[in-house]
C-alpha cells in the first residue's frame, strides 16, 4: 500500500494554496489559522511533529524522502479539508 502518485505530486500545490510557502506561513491564510489554533491548544507554541509543524517544514524545505510520504498523507487530508471548505 502506497500513496497515490497524485497525492505526492499535488502536495506542494496544496501546501502553497493553503499558505505553507517556501518562506514560511502566509499571513491571513488557512495555514496561519491552523498554526494559531495549534499554538493556542499547546499553550503558545506549535508542538514538534504536529501536522502544522510537518506541513510548515515541507512547505519551507521542499519535499524529499520521508517528508514526501508524510506530506502526501497529511497534505492529502488538508487538501480534502480545503476542498470541503471551498
Automatic annotation (TrEMBL):
Keywords, ordered alphabetically: Membrane, Transmembrane, Transmembrane helix
Tell me the compartments it is located in: Membrane
Enumerate the Pfam families for this protein: Ifi-6-16
Q: Which residues cross the membrane?
A: 6-27, 39-59, 65-85
Name the domain of life this protein comes from: Eukaryota
Cellular component GO terms, alphabetical? mitochondrial membrane
Q: How does it sit in the membrane?
A: Multi-pass membrane protein
Which GO terms fall under biological process for this protein?
intrinsic apoptotic signaling pathway; release of cytochrome c from mitochondria
What InterPro entries does the entry give?
Answer: IFI6/IFI27-like (IPR009311), IFI6/IFI27-like_sf (IPR038213)
Protein family (similarity comment): Belongs to the IFI6/IFI27 family.
What protein name is recorded for this chain? Interferon alpha-inducible protein 27-like protein 2A-like
State the species of origin: Neolamprologus brichardi
Q: What is the lineage of its organism?
A: Eukaryota, Metazoa, Chordata, Craniata, Vertebrata
